Amino acid sequence: MDEEYDVVILGTGLTECILSGVLSVQGKKVLHMDRNSYYGAEATSMTPLDQLYQKFGEEKAPETMGRGRDWNVDIIPKFLMADGKLVQMLIFTDVTRYLEFKVCEGSYVLQGNKVHKVPASEVEALSSGLMGMFEKRRFRKFLIFTNEFDESNPSSWQGVDPNTTPMSAVYQKFGLDANTQDFVGHAMCLFRTDDYLVKPCGDAIKRVKLYASSLSRYGKSPYLYPLYGLGELPQGFARLSAIYGGTYMLHKPVEKVEAKDGAVFVTSEGETVKAKQVIGDPSYFTDRVEKKGVLVRAICILNHPIPGTADSASCQLILPQKQIGRRHDIYICSVSSAHNVAPKGKWLAFISTTAETANPHGELEAAFAKLGTIEKKFVYTQDVFHPKADLAADNIFVTKSYDATTHFETTSEDIIRVYKEVTGKDFDFSACKRTIEDTQE
User: What does this protein do (predicted)?
Assistant: First the structure.
């Protein structure tokens, strides 16, 4: 291992694999290493099911769970926004040729202890129990406003400045009540707290527009999910990198990373390689990151769909913080055999939130109560790390941990951030003109 590389990447999480694929396509000589023996790091999918049980200290799954090979269980559960940045990256890099997606059947939100479908059309909006008749008219005017809002065209602003007007003032302008504000902010904009209400409204309006444009792609919901689980995503980008000359080494422990004389030296099993730049996940650079919080997650195995979701084979259910007396929302993602991640007759429900106490199980009680009978559950915590703000400019770049959100927009923003730090250029989405269907002919 005495070769020199443009970029050495440590860790095969989705962020790292996308950067590996993109940089390889652009002609960089890339070496990609991971201490694990599998792709995906935290973003892997566990298969067979025994692997999941063993991860949590149990010997093997019972026979009642069906064939172990029929399971692909995500450790970091997330959906893709159909018109979001990650889908644009998939199309831009043509990684869609390795993957197949299916639309999530519905998006739901808790209001007044009842599960409601987030309207996916004007017809659904008219029949929705989320709002009364007069509120529905006000909500429709608000949606028309956001759809026509163009940040570069002040004549579309209707007196709302995206850089100064708080979102609370936009809600007041359209007379939206507290419940409507709650599901717009948490089930459409996907904010995890109410802090956004006092911030300039530009970001929230963009999020409403993204939700609407993603929803318009497929009609049922704005979310997509890959067949066989999220572990397929990092592997798809790893294949892309390999096609363009990237070198992958799994099961390679890293002993030392040292910046010296304008280069970076990575030592593994006594051998050292030289790189112009190194990118790695927080687990490889514990001295370069700071803890930003703790996530509480649960994987639940059910033999039925989530109650109140019209027997959905897949869905998202959001429990806004106000509805459950918390500071942060709780997210539930549900998938099943429809996505080839469980045997027929079984469902997976993934729960995630930001920890507020030292009692992880207790924090998720409100979510467990919405799932009905749970056959098996695994509750775990994950620390969230971000790179320190004052890192030296020494050609070492650190990615962020995954957050509690159930979509990849924040992960995509981190990819764009690191890409710009590494190349000095903005990530170019100009080639993303096609839809996923166009690439799956």
Answer: Regulates the GDP/GTP exchange reaction of most RAB proteins by inhibiting the dissociation of GDP from them, and the subsequent binding of GTP.
H or E element that contains 65: none
In this prediction, residue 434 carries a pLDDT of 44
Per-residue tokens: 414: 């981190």
Look at residues 311, 314, 316 and name the one whose alpha carbon lies nearest to residue 337.
314
Q: What does the alpha-carbon distance between residue 104 and residue 122 come to, in Å, rounded to a whole number?
A: 19
Q: b or e along 164-194 (b: 16 or more beta carbons within 10 Å of the residue's beta carbon)?
A: ebbbbebbebbebeebbbbbbbbbbbbbbeb
Helix 409-423 crosses helix 14-25 at what angle (to 10 degrees)? 40
The CA-atom distances, in angstroms, between 219 and each of 103, 118, 120, 216, 341 are 9, 12, 6, 5, 23
Domains within the chain, CATH numbers bracketed: 4-43+231-290+385-428 (3.50.50.60), 58-84+92-105+291-384 (3.30.519.10), 121-218 (1.10.405.10)
Note if the bond before 162 is cis, omega within 30 degrees. no
The pair of three-digit structure tokens given for residue 279, joined into one six-digit string: 């990118």
Residues 223/79, Cβ–Cβ less than 8 Å: yes
Q: What is the pLDDT of residues 243-274, one digit of tens each?
A: 999 999 999 999 999 999 999 999 999 999 99
Block residue for tokens 């009680």: 365
User: Is residue 334 classed as helix, strand or coil in its secondary structure?
Assistant: strand
Any idea what DSSP says for residue 402?
Answer: P
Output the six-digit token pair for 417. 């951030």
Write out the DSSP string of 5-64.
EEEEEE--SHHHHHHHHHHHHTT--EEEE-SSSSTTGGG-EE-SHHHHHHHTT-S---GG
- How far apart, in whole angstroms, are the C-alpha atoms of residue 105 and residue 85? 21
φ, ψ for residue 316, nearest 5 deg: -120, 140
